[in-house]
Structures are given as structure tokens and as C-alpha cells.
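Progress narrative, work stream C.
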Amino acid sequence: MTPAAPQKTAAELAREAGVKADADAKEQQWQKVLSAGGAIRQAMRNPSSIVYEEVRANPDASVICFQYRAQNGFGGMGRETMAIVNGKPSQSTAVWNKNCTKPLQILDLALWQLNRK
């Protein structure tokens, strides 16, 4: 007969719940960022030309900021920015300055994933 596992304390249970909530939040952030990056790529005239230079987001991904280069209508590469705030995309400088100039989490792994072709 095996001995019963010791009961976890309330502090241990709370810590485990917090770790799970953090992991779930990071997964949701990841999915939102990848989805938004894919939507930007699909909206391009030449989707294969896009190169993401920086991807940043707040913890709940209600603000996602992209800097990227993509081929323009003349065949040259142009540098662009896109801010997605509460699910609404904008290339407005005012929206960028309001939401993307403050400290946000840099998502290097998402940048790598989005640039894979």
C-alpha cells in the first residue's frame, strides 16, 4: 500500500494556479501576435516580400506593434509600422505614438516565427 500524497497548502495551490494563468496568458498573447502578423502578410500586394523587423506587445496583446519592410507598388522596399489596438489595425502615426512608443515586451521568438517562409 502506498502512502497518501501530502495535501498541498493554500499557498502552493495559489502559486500553481498563478503559474497556469501566466502560461495561459502567454499562449493567448502568442496566438494573437501570430494571427495579426499573418493577417498583415496576407494583406500585402506581395506577401512573400514582407520582413518583420520588430514585434512588441503588452501582456494581454491588446496592443501589438509591428515594424516591417515590404515591397511597394514600384518594386522598392518600404518600411512600415502597424499598431493593432484592441483588435483594430492602424497605420496612423498618432496611434503608433500613443501606443507603441511606451515600453512593451519585445517578442523575438514571434519575430523569428513570422519571418519563416
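Work stream C, second folded protein:
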Amino acid sequence: MLPGGIVWVLNGVLNVLQIILYFTSMIFVPLIPMCIAACMGIIIVVASSFFKRKMLLLLIFFICNDRDNWIYRSVSDEIR
């Protein structure tokens, strides 16, 4: 967001309200993915609470997540 803000400031006519909103959005926009991840975690915990073998379900979620991370790391290593 910062490079876009620099270009915006250099090429535009600004007022105080726009600058305040820009800096406020720089603080709060990174919170959006964290809130989404927290909601997904709550959904997983609630879903796993209905199962008899909770640890098995959490293990499956962990394996799926770890598999995706492994794929990402292997692809990013090939690019370098």
C-alpha cells in the first residue's frame, strides 16, 4: 500500500480527510486476513468438537495444510 500511496500523493490533489483515511487503512487492512484466519480456526474447532476422535480431524487438517506448504516450498525452490 505504501508505494501506491506515494504515487497517489505525488500525482493527486489531496485533502486532509483523504490522508487520514489512507493512513487509517494502512493500519487496519492487514487485520482483514488475520480475522478471516481466526474465523476459519473457530469453524475448525467447532466442527471438530462434534466428532468423537477430535485429534484425528485436527491431524487431517494439519496434513492438508502441511501438504500445501510443502508444494509451495518445492515450487518456490524450483523458481530460484
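Helices lie at 2-11, 16-28, 31-49, 54-79. No further action is required on this item.
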